[in-house]
Amino acid sequence: MPNLNRRTLLVSVAATGALAATVGRAQPGPIESSLDLTGKSILITGCSSGFGRLGAEHYARLGAKVFATMRNLPRPEAEELTQLAARDDLDITVLELDVLDQAQVESAVAEAERLAGGALDVIINNAGIGISGPVEVQDMEATQLIFDTNVFGAHRVARAALPAMRARGSGQIVQISSQLGRVIIPFGGHYSATKFALEAMSEQLAYELVPHNIDVSIIEPGGYPTEVWINRNIYTGALKERAAEEHTQGWPQVVASMGTEDGSGRSANPMDVPRAIAALIAMPAGTRPLRRPVSGGSIPQTEINRVTAQTQLDWLGGSDRVGPLVRAVLD
Predict the structure, then answer these.
(1) Is 139's pLDDT higher than 60?
(2) Which of 162, 186, 232, 302 has the fewest beta carbons under 10 Å from its own?
(3) Which residues are catalytic?
(4) What's 135's domain CATH number?
(5) SS3 for 218?
(6) What Rg do the C-alpha atoms of the chain give, in angstroms?
(7) What are the distances in angstroms from CA 75 to CA 94, 98, 100?
């Protein structure tokens, strides 16, 4: 396996030290005032709103060639982004991509690779949904939809982009998880279950891609005031409407509030997330951390991240077969 120690070879003390200093506290302000992403080709899922929409514009303003994908084209959000790109001379191409549709995923990635002239530099798996309520209330329709979007969708996109990245011997995958991918709040439906799954899949992928010089980073946002609350209420309201009383009667107050959450009380700047991602992209390959908490408030998963990393190193770090992979990502 070549280049197993690339992180040691490429390590940048200043970059990693600055990043480590931010873990465990909020990072609400700009952290990339001098970043230059010129020459980077970036494909993002879920760009109709939220972190995806903000990120598409942000990375393009930093010089990147951005492929902003969203489902159900044509739509006003796509037209608005296209007009913005033309007005401000930003390199943004809007492509149709529904992460639930294998054919669309393959087509969009292939088209982005064609326009980029080869393998993409960065994939940002941002598309995701939430459906709240007690676990028992989650029927198979809701369960399959959230796993298909949050876990299988990210898998489809990464899998479509990886052959070209491996052939070139470089690339980066950024997975948008959540602090709820490490800690759990009751009555959150299967959201934590999907983000826990995404975290596990992404960490395994990070180890496996070490020989191919492809980095994987997991972003763990806290709660931000984005359109995610509107979309979650739509899905949750539909679930509540069709839920059988035999499953809802155990939690009358919780069920009554399903589909009514508005994200009020959250005033953190959603730009925290694109700024954090831009900083990761700008870091030298092989020095990027596996996990990056980003929050306008508390970061409850810091100790969990530390302990699990140490556990992996203690358990597998000395293995002749997989130890170099684990150490390259975590050590």
Answers:
(1) yes
(2) 186
(3) 191
(4) 3.40.50.720
(5) strand
(6) 20
(7) 11, 13, 18
